[in-house]
């Protein structure tokens, strides 16, 4: 059995038994209620201290999650080149030499001569009034075999006896058509077209073939001739004066070494930027410390498995009400009663009133326990011994008074003991009260 529950198991029966005695006590002593109503000293009130535990609320910790962050940053590489072998090729050299030119002239026909063409045609016969015609059907007599031409349907009715259409028809002119002769033009007449022309001139280099049909005018002039050109390898020049170097023709490309330098890096010595760029390998960035929000910039995401919980405020107990004590009244103060009046004696035998034997002994101090009180007895009174409890003033009563309900003094002491036992039970169960 737990030591903690042992006092409760012992004191609980005592408290119940005491309450039962107090409850039934007044009925048993009702007959002697009036025998102890005088001559009782005052009994001070008895108090007990009840300790109330503190009210405590468990406040949980305040936390928030944090993570490490990572991202991939796009980079740019720049091209740098160094010349390993120069390009090979040729240069075009050109010059112009003065040339003697002669003027030639010739006629250019703008519109050729076209002779006149007379009209050509023929005569046609055209119908002025159409002819009137009639269609006749050929009928044959079945008996005689004779034939005749009649209008369509002639063999109907009486004429139909023996006559039958052979299937042949003929168109006969009732009134001839009226015609006229008309001239029809097959080709219209064309008027004569005169010739139009102009003369053109050209300067021809002396000794060159002039244009066909041209003739020299006799005029001459000195002009810059057509340019002369020659292709020579790099480093060579043509003979003579007046040459000018022109276009470069590459025959073999230059050999260069190309390197791609990451963004922010330095190119090797002797390499020049070409201006070309390309996307480089992305750079992985990751934070070493955790934070609740992503760092500045785009593309940040949480590192998987990096979540950690940061405690902003530790868990603690909050005292909502301090522990306190309370003085509980165990038994009220009982005032002293008036002194009992002296009753006269009859003077007979000088013996004790109340029928007691002469040899009865008074209780002595040796027969009493600590805290017991001896109450003088008179006729009609009942003597008793009571144990007092600690009072609020620290003193103890000499005797227990007889109350108006006739309760024996020892019952009051037993009631006080039951209250003390109940207070002990309360203290035994005392634990801090925690509010969740």
UniProtKB/TrEMBL annotation:
Assigned keywords, A-Z: Signal
Q: Which residues form the signal peptide?
A: 1-30
State where composition is biased (Acidic residues): 354-370
Region spans: Disordered: 206-241, 282-305, 325-371
Q: What domain of life is recorded for the organism? A: Bacteria
Under what name is this protein listed?
A: LPXTG-motif cell wall-anchored protein
């Amino acid at each position: 059995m737990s030591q903690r529950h042992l006092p409760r198991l012992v004191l609980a029966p005592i408290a119940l038994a005491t309450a039962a005695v107090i409850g039934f006590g007044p009925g048993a002593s009702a007959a002697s209620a009036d025998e102890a109503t005088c001559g009782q000293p005052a009994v001070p009130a008895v108090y007990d201290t009840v300790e109330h535990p503190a009210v405590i609320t468990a406040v949980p910790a305040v936390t928030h999650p944090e993570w490490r962050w990572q991202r991939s940053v796009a980079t740019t590489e720049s091209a740098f080149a160094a010349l390993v072998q120069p390009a090979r090729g040729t240069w075009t050299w050109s010059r112009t030499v003065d040339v003697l030119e002669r003027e030639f002239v010739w006629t250019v026909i703008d519109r050729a001569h076209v002779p006149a063409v007379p009209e050509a045609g023929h005569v046609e016969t055209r119908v002025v009034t159409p002819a009137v015609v009639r269609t006749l059907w050929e009928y044959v007599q079945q008996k005689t075999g004779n034939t005749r031409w009649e209008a369509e349907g002639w063999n109907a009715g009486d004429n139909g006896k023996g006559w039958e259409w052979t299937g042949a028809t003929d168109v006969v002119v009732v009134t001839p058509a009226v015609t006229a002769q008309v001239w029809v033009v097959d080709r219209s007449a064309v008027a004569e077209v005169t010739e139009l022309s102009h003369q053109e001139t050209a300067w021809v280099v002396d000794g060159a073939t002039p244009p066909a049909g041209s003739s020299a005018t006799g005029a001459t002039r000195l002009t810059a001739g057509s340019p002369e050109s020659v292709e020579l390898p790099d480093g060579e020049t043509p003979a003579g004066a007046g040459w000018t170097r022109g276009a470069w023709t590459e025959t073999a490309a230059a050999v260069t070494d190309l390197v791609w330098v990451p963004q922010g890096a330095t190119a090797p010595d002797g390499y020049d930027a070409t201006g070309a760029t390309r996307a480089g390998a992305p750079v992985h960035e990751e934070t070493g410390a955790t934070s609740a929000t992503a760092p500045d910039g785009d593309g940040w995401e949480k590192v998987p498995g990096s979540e950690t919980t940061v405690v902003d405020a530790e868990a603690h107990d909050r005292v909502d009400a301090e522990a306190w004590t309370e003085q509980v009244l165990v038994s009220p103060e009982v005032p002293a009663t008036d002194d009992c009046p002296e009753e006269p004696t009859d003077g007979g035998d000088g013996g004790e009133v109340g029928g007691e034997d002469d040899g009865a002994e008074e209780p002595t101090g040796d027969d009493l326990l600590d805290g017991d009180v001896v109450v003088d007895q008179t006729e009609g009174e009942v003597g008793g011994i009571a144990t007092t409890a600690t009072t609020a003033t620290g003193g103890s009563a000499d005797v227990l008074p007889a109350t108006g309900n006739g309760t024996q003094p020892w019952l009051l002491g037993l009631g006080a003991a039951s209250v003390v036992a109940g207070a002990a039970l309360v203290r035994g169960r005392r634990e801090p009260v925690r509010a969740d």
